[in-house]
Amino acid sequence: MNQYFIIPGYGGSGPDHWQTYFEETQENFQRVDQKDWNNPDIAEWAENIDKAIAGYDPDSVVLVAHSLGCLTVVEWARHFNRKIKAALLVAPPDTEVLHQKVEKTLFEESPRDKILFPTTLVASTNDPWATIERAQFYAEKWGSDFINIGEAGHINNLSGYGIWDEGLEILNRLVN
């Protein structure tokens, strides 16, 4: 049986976010908590992913990431070099835009290493955190399948993605 780990981004994912919907309505979903959602430490966040999945069969582990959570998954994959079943990466932010909006340097350069397990990257044409071209660039570098879902903002509850059944369908296609 698959074990799903929710990896929120900056600020965490509140009660109306699709990640919370997944966690509350699906079996075997749990959130990887961080010490401070508003003051990201990517190395610490990546280590917390590793700690959360440590007791599970890697072939059953699926990461479900949003925004900065996607970059955290990429950092985790690069640093810990573990193979898991899969990861869904939704709306990864451009590291330059992130630096400007968060006013903190979280990465020396954009994460560009190929990920060693199956990933699907879902992006929007009007995401204020990253252009569709930047998202496609990430997908190519990371070796991810790429899905453009059109005008969907940052694919969060503020963009109308609280209950996101299409996201569950994408996730099910990824793992099956």
Describe this structure in words.
There is one protein chain. The chain is of the alpha/beta class. The chain has a single domain, classed as 3-Layer(aba) Sandwich (Rossmann fold). Helices cover 36% and strands 16% of the residues. It contains 6 helices and 6 strands; from the N terminus they run βαβαβαβαβαβα. The protein has helices spanning 18-25, 42-53, 68-80, 95-102, 132-142, 165-175, and strands at 3-7, 29-31, 61-66, 86-90, 119-123, 145-148. Strands 2-1-3-4-5-6 form a 6-stranded parallel sheet, sandwiched between helices. Helix 2 packs across helix 3. The longest helix is centred in the middle third of the chain and has 13 residues, at 68-80. The relative contact order is 0.17. The model has no long low-confidence stretch (mean pLDDT 94).
Identify the notable features of this structure and list them briefly.
176 residues, alpha/beta, Rossmann fold, six-stranded parallel sheet, 6 strands, 16% strand, globular
